[in-house]
């Protein structure tokens, strides 16, 4: 007998958008991709730029380091006609070295107001907040995948 669909077992699928399991899966995937992008964690206050032919410069700033975590900012930078530099997207990411996870702590995207989030100012545990965290971390996953495909790496 050929099954066209897997039987429902009552377990949560790891990729159900907005679910807690999907969010934890994204944290793990983001950690893996960040470590591919940044194999050696630089000291606090370090600033790095990754340049690839035909691509935008990717900017990294380490804003905090401790034994178990590292906080960083990952962004592109655009110079406006008036000389003002705009960072977009501008993601504050926390890496949990012991748990091997990475999560977006704050996301600032100028062109998408609904996407602006600072998760530590809003400690709601409802499904809307969970879905917003999933959505933001899904964006990080896709962006990291894109950057890695372009050949970005932070070395040295």
TrEMBL record:
Superkingdom as given in the UniProt entry: Bacteria
Q: Name one Pfam family in it.
A: DUF1249
Indicate what this protein is called per its UniProt record: DUF1249 domain-containing protein
């Amino acid at each position: 007998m050929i099954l066209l669909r897997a039987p429902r077992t009552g377990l949560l699928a790891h990729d159900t958008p907005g679910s807690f399991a999907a969010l934890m899966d994204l944290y793990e995937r983001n950690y893996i991709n960040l470590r591919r992008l940044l194999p050696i964690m630089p000291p606090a206050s370090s600033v790095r730029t990754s340049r690839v032919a035909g691509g935008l410069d990717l900017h990294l700033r380490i804003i905090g380091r401790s034994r178990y975590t590292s906080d960083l900012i990952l962004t592109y930078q655009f110079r406006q006609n008036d000389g003002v530099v705009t960072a977009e997207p501008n993601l504050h990411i926390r890496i949990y070295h012991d748990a091997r996870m990475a999560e977006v702590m704050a996301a600032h995207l100028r062109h998408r107001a609904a996407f602006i989030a600072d998760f530590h100012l809003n400690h709601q545990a409802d499904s809307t907040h969970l879905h917003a965290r999933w959505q933001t971390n899904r964006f990080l996953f896709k962006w990291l995948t894109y950057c890695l495909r372009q050949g970005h790496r932070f070395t040295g």
